[in-house]
């Protein structure tokens, strides 16, 4: 059977919208209908994504997270949607999402219960894969709660991968396998990439700067083990639920929510592009500021994230509060991020030699530099021995293309 690495999917990091960080496990549709995890939430998000430029920018998945299910399986042992909140079932919802030119993602769990206590897929992997395929699902986020032993966890992730491919339907497979392994043992990323299209490494992202900062710090600390495995067909996901508000789910972008300043939102967008992270927004696209929309739909940043070379970026130096990151791109280009971690004071200048970039080759003998964020502008032509100085706001990032 074909493995996830060979299923032809996720040649670039997936992009879409996910409900979790913003809408959590809202099931009270009577008193909070617009915050409830229901068919209508996903219908409205699909409408907005198709009508307001999100699909055209590359965001193609509308993803259901936990809490969509009924409390029990049906009489044939199959998962079923909550009949009150999804009265027409998942198949009809998938048909509607597809009619908008988008794809539908869904959620299940490797254990006997999901993280919120709904029925899990343990001992039902093949049946659930067939069910999802029959509904027209295009992505499965497979969580790792209530899985028992690490052996059962690994067996469940492998079996679901094979079961999805056996259906014959193209279903992107999003795993949380390494996140649940790390407290006990070092994940085998070579094996994980064999079965999964992207995988979660770290805790849930929250709508806060401290959450974003901790993800960046963790990634830099572990980059020697995770950067080399990322590439077409398999991606590191900083968190299965992207930042609330402005960004997305799988590595959820939280841009457009409530907890980040503008500079911090710029940092998340820039750094998720550098890290080749899946871009899953978790926000309310029905109510989003023009500034957040501009940032999330920024074509130059998305082009860096989606670069076909498929190499993940990495931190190349740290100097006091400043961090310098780079990502090799196709066409002998590089994306460069200068991050200012300082949380006090005003803007500061950071000067670095261009010989730092691309093992000394990025600007040899010369290069053209363009600033992408926080505003786009041409910086000019520089020689190999030149230095470049940028001004960066506290908790902000300047993103460049060289």
TrEMBL record:
Annotated Gene Ontology cellular component terms: extracellular region; lysosome; membrane
Gene: Gla
EC number: 3.2.1.-
SUPFAM superfamilies: (Trans)glycosidases (SSF51445), Glycosyl hydrolase domain (SSF51011)
GO molecular function annotations of the record: alpha-galactosidase activity
Organism name: Fregetta grallaria (White-bellied storm-petrel)
Protein name as annotated: Alpha-galactosidase
Domain of life: Eukaryota
Gene Ontology process terms (BP): glycoside catabolic process; glycosphingolipid catabolic process; oligosaccharide metabolic process
Domain Alpha galactosidase A C-terminal: 310-396
Cell compartment(s), UniProt: Lysosome
Similarity section: Belongs to the glycosyl hydrolase 27 family.
Keyword Lipid metabolism among UniProt keywords: yes
Keywords associated with the record: Disulfide bond, Glycoprotein, Glycosidase, Hydrolase, Lipid metabolism, Lysosome, Signal
Subunit-structure text: Homodimer.
Catalytically driven reaction(s): Hydrolysis of terminal, non-reducing alpha-D-galactose residues in alpha-D-galactosides, including galactose oligosaccharides, galactomannans and galactolipids; a globoside Gb3Cer (d18:1(4E)) + H2O = a beta-D-Gal-(1->4)-beta-D-Glc-(1<->1)-Cer(d18:1(4E)) + D-galactose; a globoside Gb3Cer + H2O = a beta-D-galactosyl-(1->4)-beta-D-glucosyl-(1<->1)-ceramide + D-galactose
Main location: other
Role: Catalyzes the hydrolysis of glycosphingolipids and participates in their degradation in the lysosome.
């Amino acid at each position: 059977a074909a493995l996830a690495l060979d299923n032809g999917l996720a040649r670039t990091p997936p992009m879409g919208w996910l409900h979790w960080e913003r809408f959590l496990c809202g099931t009270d549709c009577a008193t909070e209908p617009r915050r409830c995890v229901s068919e209508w939430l996903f219908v409205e998000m699909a409408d907005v994504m198709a009508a307001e430029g999100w699909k055209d920018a590359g965001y193609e998945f509308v993803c259901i997270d936990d809490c969509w299910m009924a409390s029990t399986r049906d009489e044939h042992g199959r998962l079923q949607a909550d009949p009150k909140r999804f009265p027409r079932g998942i198949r009809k919802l998938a048909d509607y999402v597809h009619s908008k030119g988008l794809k539908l993602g869904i959620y299940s769990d490797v254990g006997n219960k999901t993280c919120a206590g709904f029925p899990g897929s343990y001992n039902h992997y093949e049946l659930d894969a067939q069910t999802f395929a029959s509904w027209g699902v295009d992505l499965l986020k497979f969580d790792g709660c209530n899985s028992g032993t690490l052996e059962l966890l690994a067996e469940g992730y492998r079996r679901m991968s094979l079961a999805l491919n056996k259906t014959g339907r193209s279903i992107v497979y999003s795993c949380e396998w390494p996140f649940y392994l790390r407290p006990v043992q070092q994940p085998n990323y070579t094996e994980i990439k064999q079965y999964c299209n992207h995988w979660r490494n770290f805790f849930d992202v929250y709508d806060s700067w401290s959450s974003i900062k901790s993800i960046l710090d963790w990634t830099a600390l572990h980059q020697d083990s995770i950067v080399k495995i990322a590439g077409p067909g398999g991606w590191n996901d900083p968190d299965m639920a992207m930042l609330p508000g402005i960004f997305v789910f799988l590595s959820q972008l939280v841009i457009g929510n409530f907890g980040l300043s503008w500079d911090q939102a710029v940092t998340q967008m820039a750094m998720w592009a550098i890290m080749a992270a899946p871009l899953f927004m978790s926000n309310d696209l029905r109510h989003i500021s023009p500034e957040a929309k501009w940032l999330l739909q920024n074509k130059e940043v998305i082009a860096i994230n989606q670069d076909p070379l498929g190499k993940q970026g990495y931190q190349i130096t740290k100097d006091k509060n400043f961090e310098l990151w780079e990502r090799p791109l196709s066409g002998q280009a590089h994306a460069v991020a200068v991050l200012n971690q300082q949380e006090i004071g005003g803007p500061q200048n950071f000067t670095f030699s261009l010989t730092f970039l691309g093992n000394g080759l990025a600007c040899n003998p010369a290069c053209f530099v363009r600033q992408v964020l926080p505003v786009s502008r041409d910086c000019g032509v520089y020689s190999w021995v030149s230095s470049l100085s940028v001004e960066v706001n506290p908790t902000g990032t300047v993103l460049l293309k060289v």
